[in-house]
Amino acid sequence: MKIEFFHDVICSFCFPMSYRMRQVQKKYPNIEIIHRSFALAWDAEDLNKMFGNRDNAKKEILGHWEHANQNDDLHRFNIEGMKQADFPFPTSKNGLLASKAAKLIGGEEAYWQVFDNIQEALFVNNKDIESMDVIKEAVLDADLNWDEFEKVFHSDEALEAVNEDLKLAYRYGIQGAPFLVINEKYGINGAQPIQVIEETIEKIAVEIHEPLTLIEDGQSCSLDENGTWTCD
């Protein structure tokens, strides 16, 4: 089974969703998770169009953080800290390019680690994720070589890879993030509870006779075509 996970570094509901998808991957190790960029506000002009200016953007988006923090299983958002931060609300561009550059260097897990690092920098530590100093911290924490990363980050290849994801999202009809596309056919919209995600995955696996492996309590289990788990 293949799951395409569309998300953005500035997307507050993508933060709890990424945590849940890591649990999903751990529980169902034969699922392939592919990370896709979905820019909510690529540059400052996008924020100005949506909110009038970046000050208004910050005020309104912090209201979204309140709801996202309730959705987050760990309630990690530092909302008061962000209110005191002296930089404008950041845009998507540098964080998405950084995540995609990491993928080009180290694959899906490198993308995911840099993406998570950047989101934590914003939502928990209230750092300006447009800053290349903050990007560098996220990249080095993912054990990537900075000199190699910089070359890829500034390359046409990284930008084109982000744009290809955006085109794919358009073809799927996706209008927001987070969004999961399963086997290029089924969709899960929004930061759904882990139980909903798991039930949907198992239901689809039965419907399309897709092999699914589950690891739980040290046991390896397989789902048969009748929807019954058989464990070793």
TrEMBL record:
InterPro entries: DSBA-like_thioredoxin_dom (IPR001853), Thioredoxin-like_sf (IPR036249). GO terms for molecular function: oxidoreductase activity. The keyword Cell membrane does not apply. Keywords: Disulfide bond, Oxidoreductase, Redox-active center, Signal. Residues 3-201 form the DSBA-like thioredoxin domain. PANTHER family: DISULFIDE BOND FORMATION PROTEIN D (PTHR13887:SF14), GLUTATHIONE S-TRANSFERASE KAPPA (PTHR13887). This is DsbA family protein. It comes from Vagococcus fluvialis.
